[in-house]
Amino acid sequence: MQQNLVQRMLSRALLIFASCVSLNSWANHSDYVDHVDLALQWKHQFQFAGYYMAKEKGYYAAQHLDVDIKEVNLNYSSTSLLLDGRVNFATAGVDALKDRSDGKPLIALYAVSRNSPLVLLVKKDSGIKTAADLRNKRISMADADEFIISSMLNAAGLSEKDYIKKKPDFNMEDLINNRTDAVAAYKSNEGFWLNKKGIKYREISPDDYDLGIYSDLLITSENELNNHPIRVNKFRKASLEGWKYAFSHVEETIDVILKKYNTQNKTREHLRFEARELAKLVQPLKVELGSMRLEFWQKIVRNFTQSGYFTKSINLNDFIYTDLSTDRQLILKPSLQAWLAKHPNIRLGVDPGFYPMEYRGNNGEYLGIAADIVRLLSQHMKVNMEPVAGLTWDEVISRAKNKSLDVLPAVSITKSRDEYLLFSKPYIQNNMVIVTNRGNPTIRTKSPSRGRMIYSLEALHGKKVSVTKDYPAYQKLINQKEPINIVVRPTTLASLEAVIKGEAYAAIVFLDAATTLLNTHQMTQLRIDENAFENPGYMHFAVRKDWPELVEIINTTLEFIGTAEINRIQRKWRSAPITLGIQKEQVVLYLIILLLIITIITLWLFALKRAKNKIELQNKANINRLIGQSRHVVMGEMIAILTHQWKQPLTAMMLSVGTVKTKLKTMEVDNADAQFLDTQIETIETMMVNQNQLLVDFRDFFHPDKQKELFNINDNIASVLEILQGLIVRHNISIKTHIPKQLEVVGYARELRHVMINLIQNSIDQIVEASIANPHIILRSVIKENYLNITLEDNAGGIDKSIIETIFEPYVSTKSLNGTGLGLYMSKKIIQDNFQGSIEVANTVQGAMFTIKIPLGGGNQGTW
């Protein structure tokens, strides 16, 4: 089997080799690469990983883009470099919106995140908990950060006079040494340094003040978009592909940064921290990367207008990029549309050797500048414009005269052609130049006379000059009746060869063709002198005389395509190297490539067995992951169904309790019984309200826009014990709590309450099932090493060793047939996803102990 595989691989290698030898390299016009510059708003780090990976993995190259990524120069902002035309693209914050409102022609192409990575960092022991606490405090912020930070402070009731603004030191030393009270910083970056130095800190985020913003924008200028719309679209798409890859391959991305972009000398640990924090903001698995919504931009504008930072109106439609590449359509008059419908096929006559305007490749394919423009015309006009194969230029001219060809894509206007052809507007300038031997004196065609330039071919009088038959030079020399001996040749290449052979003193040919052929055939003994004629030469589409409608259609379509795109095509073909056929020295190169391919195949076969084992292990892991994902889908559907089904009877029960309560008021009941019934009904109503809220929380479990709040841990757990009071009293369970009354954290209070309800109820169920004498549950909470630790310990006998390792997996239960196995799984999901913490369990001497650890550095601030 492996031998057959080798034979197939060698056959393909030989085919590639044969193709390389036979194909004209002009056919691979992807050789053209468009160079663009990207300016970053800060130094190299994971914040810009998408651009690194778009370059590293070839996404830019696939779009024929060569991208130079420049990190920040503190003398210039990325936006100023873009507006000055020194770069084509830049990254920026939401301050680009402020620049747009001030009239700067910026375009937002996409946003990496809709959450603010920019926060204020304060030391935990400073007593500063909210933005309002910064009154009369020192705040370090860069000018670019002032836009969002000042708006947050304004939302907290502080004006610019209420705090002291300081310049940042960019290394956090001012904050560490108490020379400032707060620092504007990226939570994905500076927080790492504080953690490393053991500094406990708190974040004050604009998100907590309903100032959600788009961040890490990719922007460009109106000039770039207007002149290069296709390039902008390609760069945008390739960059987003880079971002998707970066978030899916974090370790590989970190390897690339460490190797090529680590100008800040960051450690792998630091880059991992940055990647984790950035992923939390971007949520690449939940939100489409790069997406922007007009409504969210409108909210941002409203917030900043209310803060006083926008004093001018802004048209967001001018600021937000819209990809029109799939929506733009050519609009023609009904009469012209009808004409095209009657003529769906248009026959082209092309010059087979007019490099690089148009020519036939070695395999007969139609290539060149005109060929690319013809393809665009065909696409927008929705017709088939097909070259007629196998014709010489003489035959093309003959058929154009008798109307057996419809269009010539690349010709100049001459008096003789004007008799049987109509011409479009010019779309490319292509001057005719004089080419002669390097040993000859320089041929001058222009000289000053009385303050003006005089053009003359006097230097060629009496000389032999080679020209291509039926080309403009031939027609002009005949019409002007210059005393020049005309040597007619069938092609441009033959005209140049006539000069080399001494059959002509000079040749008059098109500049583009001369440049291409001189380089291709290494005609180093020839040189290009001046333009042959005073008036520049232009290329036109020529149409048969009886089809004036098509001339109007072509002119309209050329305007629709735009000069910028035509210029891009022209630059592409003029900058690419050309090799007609195969050069001898290339044979060695191709043989080396072939040997390299054979070597790679041999090495690959040696590694086949190892790769096979690796694939089998990967397949096994994928199967396990798919099983887990299918369980998650089933669980999600079940939650949706149960939420809907529970809401109806719960609502009916609440209405029934209200009816009973109203009925009791009309009945004669003594005071003791009335008080007892009121207490019980109030307890039932409280439990129903809590259950109703529980259903809402189930429904909103995966909602990304939940709001954090400051809550008291002791009060939170006390409310849990109140809900479970009936079970606790019924089973005579002793509850002991050791929780500081002043312990507060910022987070999701209700979700933590659900976790505690689930853990305590599980312990109660185990106590009842095991018939434990003198049952007790002990709850403890403490802040230790920047973590909030909450423990629950019971004396219910512990958890079976066969399931303790998988107790937090879905559908694993300690309650035999009576458990769903979802409670502990949901508890783990809540702690991990919404608190960035962990939950663990271990058996003790008497029972089991659950430990919840919540870090206090990721927005879950804690205070005593």
What does this structure look like?
With 864 residues, the protein is α+β, with helices and mostly antiparallel strands. It contains 29 helices and 34 strands. It has a five-stranded mixed beta sheet, sandwiched between helices. Strands 7-6-8-5-9 form a five-stranded mixed beta sheet, with helices on both faces. It has a five-stranded mixed beta sheet with strand order 23-22-24-19-25, with helices on both faces. Helix 1 (2-22) runs antiparallel to helix 23 (584-606), helix 2 (49-56) packs across helix 11 (250-261) and helix 26 crosses helix 28. The chain is elongated, with a radius of gyration of 38 Å. 35% of the residues are buried.
Rounded Rg: 38 Å
Q: What spatial form do the alpha-carbon principal axes imply?
A: elongated
Question: Fraction of residues in helices?
Answer: 40-55%
Number of helices: 29
Question: pLDDT below 50 for ≥5 consecutive residues: which ranges?
Answer: 1-6, 8-31, 577-584
Oligomer: single chain
The whole-number mean of residue pLDDT values reads: 81
Strand proportion: 15-25%
Q: Give the beta-strand count.
A: 34
Largest sheet: 5 strands, mixed
Compute the separation of the termini in Å: 71 Å
SSE class: alpha+beta
Strand arrangement within the widest β-sheet reads 2-1-3-10-4
